Amino acid sequence: MGRFLLSRLGQSVVTLVLASMVVFAGVRALPGDPALAVAGEEATPEALAAVRADLGLDQPVWVQYWKFLTNALTGDLGTSVRTGTPVTELIGATLPVTIWLSVFAMLFAVVFGLATGVVAAVRRGTWAEAGVNGLSLLGLSVPSFWLGLLAILYLAVGLGWFPASGYVSPGEDPLRALHHLTLPAVILGAGIAAVVMRQTRASMLQNLSADYVRTARAKGASRSAVVLRFALRNSLVVVVTLVGLQLGGLISGAVVTERIFGLPGFGKLTLDSVFSRDYPVIEGVVLVVTLAYVVINLVVDLLYTVLDPRIRVAGGAR
Q: Which PROSITE patterns does its entry note (predicted)?
């Protein structure tokens, strides 16, 4: 287990270093001059040169990258050229909003997707499977922005069950936070719930027809034990992989949902920094998202070893 963990940690560090290079090069390849964005369209060449020197843009690229990397290792992601605020403060103020939204959305997607996926597999060929398949098709085919607008129109404005916009931190008032986040979390998690349902159903059907399940039935195992203890547990490997990939995507891709429901999250910060060519904020945002992906994938790898010991044994044998 220790060797497996060290191997995955080493791969994660290499991935982060390579990602930092890609992030730095990608941001520098964006069109436009950040010095011009700071100094203004009417700035003189002398003023532009002064701004470039102040931002360190007049130094060689490799010097800029080394400074970016060493500062990032100490937690210093620079200062926003647009607002003059440290990037870590901007990220610290907006990231919790997106994390809470993503966690609530993923909880809804996993609980709803797993439950309906198991029902569709166990009740194969019945009206229950047809109803679940219809729901999953609806979740996959309806765009989240349109679903969000309908939800605001009928559930928030029409019936008044949920607030149409705004955010309350769970640390301040957990019940009000749940009330504000329920609607955007359900809208954001609807598409993922449909994917989880389909993957769970397919994996459950495969496992329910496997030899070890027939053996368990022949030995007198109850129906609930066969479904929950044997078939569902082995189906979770596929679901865990899906959740890991989708959770990283939620953190970086909740832009539309945050815009529709007026949430001051990571998405708004990202869009504002891109439109204003705020290099330090863009680099910090992308680096944090990359770190989130790496950490989530590391956790998923560790969960594999818990759900399927053969993966741990194979990793230790190398």
A: ABC_TM1
**Residue 68 burial by CB count (10 A; 0-12/13-18/19+): exposed, middle or buried?**
buried
CATH architecture of 95-278+293-313: Orthogonal Bundle (1.10)
Instruction: Give the closest residue to 91 by CA, choosing from 275, 292, 265.
Output: 265
Q: 134-158 pLDDT, tens per residue?
A: 888 888 888 878 888 888 888 888 8
Instruction: State the Cα–Cα distance between residues 41 and 35, nearest whole angstrom.
Output: 10
CB 308 within 8 A of CB 298: no
Closest Cα to residue 282, out of 293, 271, 290? Answer: 271
Domain locations along the chain? 95-278+293-313
Token pair belonging to 46: 């002398």
- What CA–CA distance (Å, rounded) separates 116 from 112? 6
User: Cα 120 vs. chain centroid, distance in angstroms?
Assistant: 27
The model's pLDDT over 256-298, given as tens digits with 9 standing for 90+, comes to 788 888 888 877 788 788 777 777 888 888 888 888 888 887 7
